[in-house]
Amino acid sequence: MKVLITGGSGFIGSHLAELLLSNGHQVCSLDDLSTGESGNVDHLESNPDFQLVVGSVLDTDLVDKLVERCDVIYHLAAAVGVELIVSKPLESLETNIRGSESILKHAHRYRKPVLLASTSEIYGKNTEGPLKEEDDRILGSPLKTRWSYSTAKAVDEILAHAYWKEYGLHTVIVRLFNVVGPRQTGMYGMVLPRFVRQALLNEDITVHGDGSQSRCFAHVGDIVHALYGLMQSTDAAGQVYNVGATHEITILDLAKKVVSVTGSSSKIEFIPYDEAYEEGFEDMQRRVPDVGKIGEMIGWKPTTTLDESIDSIIDGMRSRLAR
Ligand code: UDP
Q1: What is the sign of the dihedral through the CA atoms of 201, 207, 208 and 213?
Q2: Measured between alpha carbons, how far is residue 185 from residues 103, 104, 188, 256 in Å?
Q3: SS3 of 135-199
Q4: Which of 35, 124, 288, 297 has a CA that sits 20 to 30 A from residue 244's CA?
């Protein structure tokens, strides 16, 4: 298969490219390298089945050409990371809404199956758990920038679903819950690479709020198998799936774990949300996925433990810091 991955040089995209190449597929990565790094795919550049196209999903002529040539699309290109969304709201909205609109429009034109990467932010402040795909979204004011990301991704989901419903386009939506692993950067907000970096440098570990908020961290290696598995199954079309790990940990416990595993002398520093992001910032207290639906569809479940994930991030971060 000729596979187009938008955002293919990003953290998840680069791991997905590796998996697809190892399964004998050809991969074209469309990436504007805004948050993805070409370094993430340097090791793939010598592979004749891999091609990196540096460009934007907002470039409709380029998208037209690449979509026409491919057999299947994984649309991962997006502005992600709470810090990025809060600091660049307009650019983030444009990439996340217009980018997906363009990919879906061209996928429809050439009848190519699309996997759309969405997010657990869809559920907003719904702290029920474990969250099922049909659960309610609970959002704060649209003037709070954080919720604009959730809304942009909801528009993407609505579009993908409408293309399936009205035109029978093969679309699959995945809601990713806190994916972690080597190559993820903490520059745009993501907590685990930040904590690991801070711990390795013996800097203070920046815990937002009181650290009682919890998340489930899934290893990228598990996640890319889920995405690939879903696109192998014709029955997954027209559906949305939660994809993530189910082991819940508070952010304070995560900070303590990282300090202990790295043997760091870092202290924990509590930073109020208003200071960490912006005034009036709202976090979600808890976010746990129910992954029963994808389990039933393709037999997938996460297998990497949190300790294994942290170890792999420490290894990756150590070599990054040594560069
Ligand atoms: N967080 C933190 N310190 C940091 C970065 C993030 O305590 O340096 C917190 C953040 O406020 C949130 C949790 O860690 O409560 C997860 O943040 P992340 O941005 O990784 O993911 P999301 O909020 O999208 O779940």
Answers
A1: positive
A2: 26, 28, 7, 20
A3: CCCECCCCCCHHHHHHHHHHHHHHHHHHHHHHHCCCEEEEEECCEECCCCCCCCCCHHHHHHHHH
A4: 35
Determine contact, residues 245/217, Cβ cutoff 8 Å.
yes
Active site residues: 149
Sheet holding 26-31, edge to edge: 50-54, 26-31, 2-6, 72-75, 114-119, 171-176, 239-243
What CA–CA distance (Å, rounded) separates 88 from 101? 20
CB atoms within 10 A of CB 151: 18
Domain 2-180+217-246+285-303 class, CATH top level: alpha beta
Task: Report the C-alpha gap between 163 and 112 in whole angstroms.
Answer: 12
Residue 12 phi/psi, 5-degree rounding, is: -75, -40
CB-CB neighbours of 171 under 10 Å? 28
Task: Tell me which residue of 287, 252, 285, 284 sits closest to 144, measured CA to CA.
Answer: 284
Is 218's C-beta closer than 6 angstroms to any atom of ligand 1?
A: no
* Residues of the chain scoring pLDDT < 70: none
Domain limits, the chain: 2-180+217-246+285-303
2: β partners:
26
Per-residue pLDDT tens over the stretch 264-277: 999 999 999 999 98
CA dihedral for 160, 164, 167, 170, sign (positive or negative): positive
pLDDT at residue 129 in the model: 82
pTM strictly above 0.85: yes
Q: Which residue has the tokens 């649309």?
A: 75
Q: Which amino acid is at 96?
A: N
Pocket test for ligand 1, best of 131, 150, 208, 278 (most atoms within 8 A of CB): 208
Hey, what are 148's tokens?
A: 């604009």
Any ligand 1 atom below 6 A from CB of 283: yes
